[in-house]
Amino acid sequence: MSAVPAELIAALRAAVGAAHVATGEAVALLDVGWNPHNLDAGIVVSPESTSEVAAVVRLCAQHGVSLVPQAGRTGLVGGSMSKPGQIVLSLLRLNQIEPMDPTERVALVGAGCTLQALQEAAAEHQLEPGIDLAARGSATLGGMVSTNAGGVMAFRNGVMRHRVLGLEAVLPDGTVFQDLTRVVKNSAGYDLKHLFIGAEGTLGVVTRVVVKLDPMPQATATALFGLPTVEATLDVIGMALQAKAGHLRAAEALWQRFMHLNAQALQWSQEGFALDQPLFLLLKLGGADEAALQGAFEDLFEATLARYPSSTGIIASSQRQETELWHLREDTDIVYRAFPAAPSYDVSVPLSRIPAYAAQVQAELAALDASLQPFIFGHLADGNLHIILNHTGPLPAQRAQEVEHILYRNLRAWGGSFSAEHGVGSKRIGAMNDTTDGVKLAAMAQVKRLLDPQALMNPGKVFLD
Ligand SMILES: Cc1cc2nc3c(=O)[nH]c(=O)nc-3n(C[C@H](O)[C@H](O)[C@H](O)COP(=O)(O)OP(=O)(O)OC[C@H]3O[C@@H](n4cnc5c(N)ncnc54)[C@H](O)[C@@H]3O)c2cc1C
Are 134 and 204 within one domain? Predict the structure, then answer.
């Protein structure tokens, strides 16, 4: 692809200020994030307002140069990869949080605001955004909208789509779509904000987001159970949903191989708690009183033992212990350090199918290649499993197809998904084309052509170039 015209670079500098158009050495100094090709474009433009974003988009449209929106660069499916001849549009300077009205329980934030910054601002009013994920320190609300992020509380509060009340986006021609609704109920015509949620930057640039907030519990408690089977783990989640005190906030499953790797890397162990169970379940309760929550966990463990006598359990007794337990689940980069660029999958499976699915996948992968051993973990309460293979770099093409066949072939018929919460990006376009209803694919392509006739918004993502 040809280089970005010097005339465009000069116009971009005039539009956002020369200091905010990084090239060459200045780009090399930036954090490339979770994909090594994020900054391959070599030009990063960082506007600070919706009107500056619109000016950048208009200039790129005039010159026929494509744009790759980026923010936290924590995306896991190559959605923010860029290449020479493109412009990276960083939203990180749009990080404003408007003053919150605790009565409304709503936040209006810039797309570049990180989840953690919003969580901290909301906490000052005893509120929370109701969505949480391990990349909270870098992932932004605009990025989370664009990937329709899920995370640990989705089984209870829904995914990003259910937390967004309104949004503003710059369309590919530089006009501004504005629907900053701040109420839950709004049935006034087509709810077009949903087009931008999960669009991964292919239909426009999200600039501001209205997020629904919930009351924050005054106390939390965490427990880790070791369990004999997937069925038992789902059963315990069911019991935890009926906890005698508080409410379930997270239920994360760690299959043994994942637990072993992370516990070893973090040098974590607990006297009397063996790591020989097939599955581990990390649970968090929220409520008014920590002692009551711990009591609820004691009752839950007793009930679990009555049904599954080989179960084991720990209830965190301090904030430090709670944090250590969560590191076991959240430090997923340990797998990628052991197997750089390992093939990874992010499936959603209806809960009733999970036990058979997990058994089928493990058996068929072993039959395909006994050296392929999956690390499985995930948001079991909503049926979202993450599966990472113990393989450095991508699999050879034929083997990759065989693995996808094992993982994906039944999901559509069951009502599941090949992409639970990470998106399609550039990595899962083949899986989408193979497993999605043809009428849906055709309708998506029509919407894309309608809004972005020049195909300048994040080309090569969601759709092939
Ligand atoms: C350790 C770790 C844990 C994670 N855990 C979870 C999890 O539990 N649940 C989950 O859902 N995800 C998870 N993720 C994935 C990731 O955090 C999410 O995809 C997140 O939503 C991406 O936000 P970002 O700001 O980093 O976006 P980027 O990575 O910068 O971009 C992601 C995509 O969104 C587009 N984009 C970004 N900003 C905008 C914008 N303002 N307008 C239009 N398009 C835009 C980009 O073009 C790209 O396609 C995890 C990632 C890591 C590294």
Answer: yes
DSSP one-letter string for 379-402: EGGGTEEEEEES-SSPPPHHHHHH
Domain match, 184 and 206 both = yes
Residue type, 117: A
Nearest CA to ligand 1 atom 11: 149
Mean pLDDT by 10 residues, the chain (465 residues): 88 98 96 97 98 98 98 98 98 97 96 98 98 97 98 98 98 98 96 98 98 97 98 98 95 98 96 95 97 96 98 95 96 96 97 97 97 96 98 96 97 96 97 95 97 97 91
Measured CA angle at 248 (ends 242, 250), to 5 deg = 140
What is the whole-number distance in angstroms between the Cα of residue 244 and the centre of ligand 1?
36
196 CA: nearest ligand 1 atom: 43
277 alpha carbon to ligand 1 midpoint, in Å?
33
Q: Which of 146, 163, 334 to mutate to test the pocket of ligand 1 (most atoms within 8 A of CB)?
A: 146
Q: Measure 373 CA to ligand 1 centroid, in angstroms.
A: 27
Angle, in degrees to the nearest 10, between helices 230-241 and 290-307: 140
Give the domain range for residue 404. Answer: 341-447
Distance 13 CA to ligand 1 centre (A): 27
Q: Assess if residue 382 is contained within a domain.
A: yes
Contact 5, 60 (CB under 8 A): no
18: in domain: yes
Residues with CB under 6 A from ligand 1: 34, 68-76, 79-80, 91, 111, 133-135, 138-140, 142-144, 146-147, 149-151, 200-201, 205-206, 332, 421-422, 425, 458, 461
| Position in ligand 1 atom list of the atom nearest CA 75 | 29
452 falls within a domain? no
Provide the number of structural domains found in the chain: 4
Sheet with 21-23: list strands edge to edge.
Answer: 21-23, 43-45, 87-90, 67-70
- Whether residues 355 and 256 share a domain: the answer is no
